[in-house]
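Bumping with the actual sequence this time:
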Amino acid sequence: MDKRTFLKASAAALLGTVVRAQGRGPNIVLICADDLGYGDLGCYGSAIRTPNLDRMAGEGVRFLQCNSASAVCTPARAALLTGRYPTRLGLPTVLFPGDTKGLPDGETTLAQMLKPRGYRNKCVGKWHLGAPSQFLPTNRGFDEFFGMPYSHDMWPRPLMNNCETVEPKANLTTLTDRYAAASRDFITRAKDSPFFLYVATAMPHIPLVSSERFTGRSPLGAYGDAVEETDWLVGQILGSIADNGLDDSTLVLFTSDHGPWYQGATGGLRGRKGETWEGGVRVPLIARCPSYLPRGRVAGGFASTMDILPTIARFTGAPLPGKPLDGVDIWPLFTGQQEEADRDPFLYFDYYNLQCARSGRWKLHMSRYSGMPWLPEPVTGRINLPLPRPELYDAVTDPGESCDVARDNPQIVADIRARVDSLLPTFPDEVKSAWRDTMDKQVQDTPAGAWPAKQTSP
């Protein structure tokens, strides 16, 4: 670590003490795009123009190995805001407008964690953690809410201000504009107290809609237009932070809920939204806080969006929620003090089905569905089946998961499986039952982890 990085890391380590002495904490802005691919930003190799996010990465930290806890919307957002696997929360799949479920009362959101520290909190954009009033943001630690209760491809699509519908059928062409205005207004009003602003953008989830000034602007079509306007929204937020003199006291984070759906780039990764291949779960993660983070750092260590809550807890001095977290504090990865975080294997679920586990650079695939999520359902439905032999990929040197190296690394396979077996008893019955059902389908003549003898040339 160079001297400059060391000094910034040391300053950040003292931040909690300093802000407590001053009686306020640093501001937190968390921006989450919808269905944005790992390869959709200029700083991640895209041809789409994203100057504001590129600048944010140049002035802060960009992660190469960040994974969402789910490849679909509701569970990914539940994990982001609680630091816990969505399978623990009873939210393993997408909620729809008629559903009566939502994020359980017993779970603590980022906003609820920060509230006792004197934070003013606002949610702007897509919620998707329960549409009934008791589950809306204003009942989950947010003082204000301006946005939609679920995805804009669902019907009806009301635009809400707190708990009141202000537009029964939201005008999508002005939505990003209004989200930007609501964000700027809140920053200006809340600047004299610590605040948490959570902005969940509408785009680039389908239907792809942009304002008039962005429509037809990108050479990459409607998807490019939507991403470029999302980048503009980030620029509006960064500009408002600077205009109010808050640059040095504000941590801004940008990520996506999961990988891209029909359009969008995975950056060469295998799979898409709805799959536990890297293309479905690897997401951009950019962090900027000029006074406390190094400029232009590229972090290669593994991270998860579930790590954001415990990392913010450390940064703000907020006490952690009472329930055990699955995310870990990755502030040392932000600052460069460490390259890897100490953590249990990261687990990949599709619904309640455990399919993969990652430990360090190694990702082990153990089960998989009988059909792809975008293909017509077979008559018997999609079935989660155990792989005849686990597949092991080096997710660092082989991010496309194209070369199975399990046969050459049997001890790594055995170690990850043993650690998975030790974690499973901590999960709800639905997870344990789904795992037993999957493993009961194991091909009897090829036990998991076994390989036929290598054939030698005659």
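The tokens above came from a reply further down the thread. The chain has 13 helices and 14 strands.
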